[in-house]
Amino acid sequence: MNDLLWKKTEDFDFDDPPSEYSFSIRLAHENCWTENFTINAIKEYKKFMFLAAVSEEMVSPSDIIDKVWHQHLIFTKSYQVFCKILGKQIQHIPSTHHRNESESFKEAKKRTEKLYLKNFGHIPEEFWKSASIPSGLYLKQSRFNVTQITNLVIGTSILLLFPLYLTFHETIATVENDQFYISYFFLVTFSLAIVYRFNTLGKKELIETFRNQSLIKNLSRPEIIYLIFSDVSHSIKLSVDGLIGKQIINVNDDKTLSAKKSCENLSAEETQMILQIESFGKIHFAHLKAYLLKKPFYKNVSQSMDEIKKHLLQSKLFVKIFSVNLTVCAVLMITGILRLATGISREKPVACLCVLLLIMITVTFLHLKRLSQNMIVGIFRNKFRSRQKSSESEDTDFEFAYLTPLLMTSSMVYNNSSVFSEGADSGFSNESSCGGSSCGSCGGCGGD
Known about the structure:
mainly alpha, 4 strands
């Protein structure tokens, strides 16, 4: 292995100089990738280009690497500088899917794998075998989504009401009110206990599925906070407060913020904040937050996390959990509605039962609406608790995410609560378009 060439390749900075829509931010934005996944995808791209430089024959990228490559070609100046470092003008050769090309591209893929193993060792599957982040989560997807399941269960319940009423209304009429309410109470209690146990086991299975996945283990603080709270504003507050504590941001007498000094080794989130503050000179926190929420960095956070949530909601495991919860709730509703219909037909007082059913419908709706979020919170709460027992440095992000509600309801770490008063805040657009910059499949590359 050419260690000197690899060192130069590895040290090449795609985001120099930093900007609000730098190479890595644009790459993440167009592909709905997480921050850490984007960083590692760029690292794998560097390895691929190194292999292309040292190989005398064609090598072939994976789908993920090809997306990075396509975008780098758009950054023409950066690409030319990178090729000079590699000592070779590496050409992108797109696949035309011609039959005669098939064998040569297959050989190129095999050759790439051998070269990678020889120079870098283990090949990470999430970048070389998967086509996107969701496919790298290894969650089997259901043919049916939550909406379809909901329509099916509600439709079936409505169709069953009349035949069930004809079959059981005489039996139901013989049950006294007190006896019905007591029996119904125990039925609801028993059903909820079963559902709770089922949900707990399902959550454990999801936790086991996610436990060793690097994609989930290495989420950034804004991403974790968005997954748990569906809001990145808390992360902005925490980061600004941290920068004040580090004396990188200064709080002026009029409660505006200004950048005290530039600093290296900042996180991507902190870099965006410093760039924004420096562009204004000084700015109130409410306006800073409003501007930041419009920036690609924070849009990337919501887009990539929404993709993960969407994949989770479409998984066989979650659809099964949702279906069981909905079916149990439907059975309880049908039981109550049959009693209600019987009471109305016999001109009995049903006001209490109507109120009870309305309460149950409301609780059921809220429970099912929050079910997915509860599963996500459960997964990351478990991760926080397990990491809390270790002494790994990355625990800090989980700690911040988990303690966010406490931080938001008390004075900030460095007593800057007055700085974070919400003034005139502006709205922002949160459009999502995860198309990717790759133009399809790529065959490989050649060099001059």
